[in-house]
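Field reference: "sequence" (input) and "structure" (output). Example, Amidase:
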Amino acid sequence: MGTHFAGSKATSVADIVRFNTENPEVYQPYGQQYLEASSESTVTAEDYRAGALQLRSAAAAYLDDLLSEHDVDAIVGIGNNLSGVYPTAGHPAVTVPDGVNSEGIPFGVTFVGPYLGDGDVLGMAYAFEQVTNARVIPPTGFVR
């Protein structure tokens, strides 16, 4: 932790929890419970790495199975519903603007491809963008 916060007196999550507890109105408005739970965790760095590798493998298998089972070059969806899966799996994805909904909020179409299929996914997205020309420039001062 010290390498990430050079010059800081905090050397552990417990140090951060302690600091936040001394200044709750400033440093505890959101998420303090996650820091406290983390400081009590018994998960080791090795356990974390093993879990992350297992999760990556499961995510990749899920996407690979979808692609092969349906014999498609990419998974295409409105929005970004698979955003918790494809980055974990290491699969490429790109979202192309596709207009605005009835409330004027922009949305897009996301293309997710196989591992190392970056060029193909970009080509699909580019072709979609050129054919649909659906991007709508939000008005100046657009606030969601």
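Residues 65 and 71 are 9 Å apart (CA to CA).
Helices lie at 13-22, 24-27, 32-39, 45-69, 86-89, 118-132.
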